[in-house]
Amino acid sequence: MKFTAVVLASILSGLVAADVSSVLSAIKTLQSAVETTDSDVKGFDKSQGINGALSIQSTEANIASALDSLTSAVNGLDGSSLSDSDVSSLTSAIQGVSSAVESLLSDLTSKASDLTAVGTQTIVQGDLSDLSGKTYALESAAYKVVPCGSVSAISSAFASINSGFDSAIKAYGGSASGSPPAAPQGCAASSAAAPASSAAAAATSAAPAAGSSAASAAAPAGTTSAAAAAESAAPAGSNAVETDVVTVTDCPATVTNCPARSTNAAVATAPATEEPSVAPVQTNGGNGIKAGIFGVAAAGVAALLM
């Protein structure tokens, strides 16, 4: 079993390598055809007449055939099986042939007046439109196999080629037919979504903490939440205390220094470890102090009123 697995892995690896090799070979074939035609275009002069122009046009068939073969080879690739080295080799090769194509298109644009003068305007325009469509097909195939990390470089190379086709076709009085395929948007979206998700998660996790802290700070002194916060915030080894604010609403007439008639709040402080109890405070013959507070706080108020 182990031997079989090793053999199978070796075969599969060889197939991937062969596929990449065939693509690289097809790219070289295309580049050679492009450079041959470009050399003829550069050397063309209108004095060569229609025959010289048709000689150049005949080489267009080699470029068209090479584009079809390359597109077929790219479609045969399994993108998930490509190694980083494979991707790097393919990207470099595509960028290399891109430069060759751009050079040819630039020279055709420069020679537009000469080629038009000998009567080949419509022929060149049709050839360029045909090659442009085949380039779109190759670009679409490439986007299906290259990983996200290489999309930018591939997209840039094809964008330059497509721009060259547009300029050349316009130079011969035509307009590009169809539109180039759009680069995969998922690559940019995924990378942008990751930080956003992280930020959202951070905000979510931070929200309860911020809310709890704010609630503790905003809670009126003397409430259970404030007391719990005070106890939890006390440094280790220190004596925590509990402070309660008492609102005095009424006093007997005999009490001259009544907190209810003062702008100062009555505050009672006691050790937080004492067990709280609720009890009204009574004064001699007077109305009860209506406060509903911890007993230890009430005792402090009663001492104040005595």
From TrEMBL:
Signal sequence residues: 1-18
- One GO CC term, this protein: extracellular region
Q: Which UniProt keywords apply?
A: Signal
Domain of life, per the record? Eukaryota
Q: Does the keyword Signal apply?
A: yes
Q: Does Ubl conjugation count among this protein's keywords? A: no
**Residue intervals passing through the bilayer:** none
Which protein is depicted? Hydrophobic surface binding protein A
Q: Which organism is it from?
A: Sugiyamaella lignohabitans
Phylogenetic lineage: Eukaryota, Fungi, Dikarya, Ascomycota, Saccharomycotina
